[in-house]
Design a protein that fits this description.
Rossmann fold; six-stranded parallel β-sheet; alpha/beta; binds NADP nicotinamide-adenine-dinucleotide phosphate
Length: 321
């Protein structure tokens, strides 16, 4: 464990009530951290500079793990690109600047795989992060979050500010967002299968051609990776957090249909975008620098996700409680 952190450190987790946040709080609590601070969006709108100042003066964190973000799938990114840019860029900008003024000992920033160039060489390696423009549908989101990396590197150079930056691939697991207007592909497919089963429908319709590929990291593994980086990593270079396993959206849809016991057809709506053509991370740096290696198999992770979904699904509303 670094000298800048102890189990009693006052650690604020922005976005603690979100999908990743809830799992991270659980992992840190189980590991014995006793002074976790969990500001909610209702307490502070972290895209507003005055709220960020108030957050630092009222909560007095020593370390910030910044997870809060406006997040969504391709549709949400396409329909709200300005909000995705503004909200995410301004949160990073103000939290880092005010965190420097407040004298934080460490700032852990969670970025996204959406920051990678659209056609980055597979597997995506951290040194290729600036080798091109991101895929258009998620560029405002990916670039807004990527600016925090630039800011942290500049602050490290000029002020010696200890900020680290992690790049998680697509996450999934229990507690994911199942709201169809903003969900990612795995919860969207699970919900579609469930609704089709309930309605006795013979097919589901899925966006795109199915040829794009994605990599998925189980959310508990992501929380473990974040905790290891918090405890062991103190360098300005960004680090991927992933499982290193790539799957096509077509294979993913079939896998989920089988696990959900949906026996109908999958129709591909090719008028809708595929998003980034391929996604698969080189995960060696995380293993080398702070000993992180994803351990949950995709089949087990999906089974756990579906089990959680079934416990929380409300057939009346057609959504998750
Ligand atoms: N999920 C993924 O697949 C994935 C992949 C790569 C990286 N990430 C990154 O991981 C982090 C967590 O993602 P997630 O999936 O857990 O997202 P999430 O479930 O949507 O949680 C985001 C959290 O941020 C809060 N928030 C949003 N805007 C805020 C604001 N202006 N002020 C204060 N709080 C605000 C939200 O509160 P409200 O809900 O109350 O608005 C929520 O608690 C994000 O930084 C995301 O970019 C996620």
């Amino acid at each position: 464990m670094d000298s800048c952190i102890s189990k009693q450190s006052r650690i604020a987790i922005t976005g603690a009530s979100g999908f990743l946040g809830q799992h991270l709080v659980k992992a840190l609590t189980n590991a014995g951290y006793t002074s976790l601070l969990c500001p909610t969006h209702g307490d502070y709108d972290l895209s507003m500079p005055n709220d960020v100042r108030r957050f630092y003066s009222e909560m007095r964190p020593q370390i910030v793990i910044h997870l809060a973000a406006l997040v969504g799938g391709i549709g949400a990114n396409q329909s709200h690109p300005a909000e995705f840019f503004y909200s995410n860029a301004s949160m990073g900008l103000h939290l880092i600047e005010q965190g420097r003024i407040a004298g934080l000992t460490k700032f852990v920033c969670v970025g996204t795989v959406c920051a990678y160039p659209k056609y980055a060489t597979i597997p995506f390696t951290e040194t290729d992060l600036w080798a091109g423009y991101p895929e258009e549908t998620n560029a405002p989101y990916g670039l807004a979050k990527k600016m925090a990396l630039v800011q942290l590197q500049a602050y490290r150079k000029q002020y010696g500010f200890n900020g680290i930056y992690l790049l998680p691939v697509n996450l999934y697991g229990p507690g994911d967002n199942f709201d169809p207007s903003s969900s990612h592909v795995i919860p969207a497919l699970i919900l579609k299968c469930q609704r089709a089963i309930n309605a006795g429908e013979e097919f589901i319709e899925v966006w795109g051609t199915g040829s794009a590929s994605r990599e998925f990291l189980y959310v508990e593994d992501a929380a473990k990776g974040l905790m290891l980086a918090l405890e062991r990593y103190n360098s300005g270079e960004p680090v991927n957090l992933g499982s290193g396993q790539e799957i096509s959206i077509r294979d993913l849809a079939h896998k989920i249909a089988v696990l959900m016991q949906f026996n109908g057809k999958i129709n591909w709506d090719i008028s809708k975008p595929d998003g980034q053509p391929r996604r698969c991370l080189n995960t060696q740096m995380a293993e080398r620098e702070f000993g992180f290696k994803a351990s949950t198999s995709f089949d087990i992770g999906l089974a756990n996700t579906i089990e959680w979904f079934r416990k929380n699904y409300d057939p009346g509303s057609g959504g998750v409680k």
